[in-house]
């Protein structure tokens, strides 16, 4: 079905159209979310939130961008919101433990093993994902969209509502920062 | 030096470790879970609204507001009625020569004397 027709049907509340959209883009949304939140359960949560948002906000989709671009934007936003909420909870937990009101132990984030990584690269990829968590948000998003989702610079610029040179700069800085972090990591091992 | 080269090699391999990545797949029946979540959110919204209205403070405030609006409307209506009554009596007085509207009308003879 044509994307425009699909959107029109969804705006009229057609559940079958919504099902088609979910099935067509669930992998894209889930994979992107996985790369950002680096946890299978959280990625599932974010994926559901994305499609709920699509269902509720399809009326505001004007069609000036591709549906996939819109979906990527919602995914990135929801994934970042998820990370922020978790950080806030963690900070609150630390405050509670400082004042002796909580029994929770500070739990370090476990290594993330992306299910789609080749077997030989699993350990190194886990280190890379750890390093990505230390990047500034924009650099992390650009790197994830490029390396995990395989988007081109042009596609990334559309998702991030910026220019191609800006994306090139983000990726260049991301790689430079990752390299520094990885050198330190391997030197200290 | 060897160690530095080794580290650089490791760093490069790590940076390239996502080459040939297969995309992760969500668990089956995602659509079913999404629809369940949408339904749950809709129910939650109505429940929240009902709970809000049922709160004593909100209910009391609503009743007070309702009474205040009624009182205001009644007050406005009675104010209009009294001003209408005044106008009516003025008109009636004029028609039947019962009202005194100026000093000249009270003593018409004196006015004649002044003019002469």
Q: Looking at the chains present, what oligomeric state does this protein adopt?
A: heterodimer
Largest sheet of chain A: none
Q: Into which percent range does the helicity of residues of chain A fall?
A: over 70%
Distance between the termini of chain A: 54 Å
Kindly report the greatest chain-chain contact and the residue count on each side.
A-B, 42 and 26 residues
Number of domains of chain A: 2
Query: Judging from the principal axes of the Cα atoms, what is the shape of chain B?
Result: elongated
The tally of strands of chain A reads: 0
Radius of gyration of chain B: 44 Å
Beta fraction of chain A? under 5%
Average pLDDT score of chain A: 91
Labels describing this entry:
heterodimer, A: 189 residues, Rna Polymerase Sigma Factor, Chain: A, 2 domains, 8 helices, 71% helix, globular, B: 116 residues, mainly alpha
Per-chain topology:
The complex is a heterodimer of chains A (about 190) and B (about 120).
Chain A: H1 3-11, H2 15-37, H3 40-57, H4 67-98, H5 122-132, H6 137-147, H7 153-159, H8 164-187
Helix pairs in contact in A: 1-2, 2-3, 2-4, 3-4, 5-8, 6-8, 7-8
Chain B: H1 2-15, H2 30-54, H3 56-95, H4 103-106, H5 108-115
What does it look like?
The complex is a heterodimer of chains A (189) and B (116). Chain A has two domains: 1-110, Rna Polymerase Sigma Factor, Chain: A; 112-189, Arc Repressor Mutant, subunit A. Chain A contains eight helices and no strands. Chain A has helices at residues 3-11, 15-37, 40-57, 67-98, 122-132, 137-147, 153-159, 164-187. In chain A, helix 2 packs across helix 4 (67-98), helix 3 crosses helix 4 (67-98) and helix 5 packs across helix 8. Chain A is globular and about 55 Å long. The model of chain A has no long low-confidence stretch (mean pLDDT 91). With 116 residues, chain B is mainly alpha-helical. The longest helix of chain B is centred in the middle third of the chain and has 40 residues, at 56-95. Chain B starts with a helix and ends with a helix. The chains are: A mainly alpha (189), B mainly alpha (116). The interface between A and B is medium-sized, with 42 and 26 residues.
């Amino acid at each position: 079905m044509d994307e425009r027709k699909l959107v029109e049907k969804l705006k009229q509340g057609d559940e079958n159209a919504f099902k088609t959209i979910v099935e067509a883009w669930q992998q894209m949304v889930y994979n992107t979310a996985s790369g950002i939140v680096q946890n299978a359960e959280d990625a599932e949560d974010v994926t559901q939130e994305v499609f709920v948002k699509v269902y509720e906000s399809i009326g505001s989709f004007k069609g000036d961008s591709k549906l996939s671009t819109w979906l990527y934007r919602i995914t990135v936003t929801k994934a970042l919101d998820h990370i922020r909420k978790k950080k806030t909870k963690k900070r609150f937990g630390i405050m509670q433990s400082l004042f002796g009101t909580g029994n929770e132990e500070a739990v370090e984030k476990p290594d993330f093993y992306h299910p789609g990584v080749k077997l030989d690269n699993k350990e190194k990829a886990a280190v890379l994902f750890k390093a990505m968590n230390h990047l500034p948000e924009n650099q992390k998003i650009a790197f994830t969209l490029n390396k995990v989702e395989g988007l081109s610079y042009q596609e990334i610029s559309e998702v991030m509502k910026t220019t191609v040179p800006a994306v090139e700069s983000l990726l260049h800085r991301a790689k430079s920062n990752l390299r520094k972090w990885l050198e330190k990591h391997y030197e200290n091992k | 030096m060897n160690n530095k080269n080794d580290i650089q090699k490791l760093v490069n391999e790590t940076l390239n470790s996502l080459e040939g990545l297969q995309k992760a797949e969500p668990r089956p029946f995602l659509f079913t879970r999404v629809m369940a979540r949408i339904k749950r959110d809709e129910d939650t919204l109505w429940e929240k609204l009902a709970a809000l209205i049922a709160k004593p403070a909100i209910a009391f405030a609503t009743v007070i507001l309702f009474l205040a609006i009624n009182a205001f409307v009644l007050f406005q209506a009675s104010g209009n009625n009294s001003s209408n009554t005044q106008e009516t009596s003025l008109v009636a007085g004029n028609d039947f020569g019962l009202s005194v509207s100026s000093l000249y009308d009270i003593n018409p003879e004196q006015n004649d004397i002044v003019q002469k």
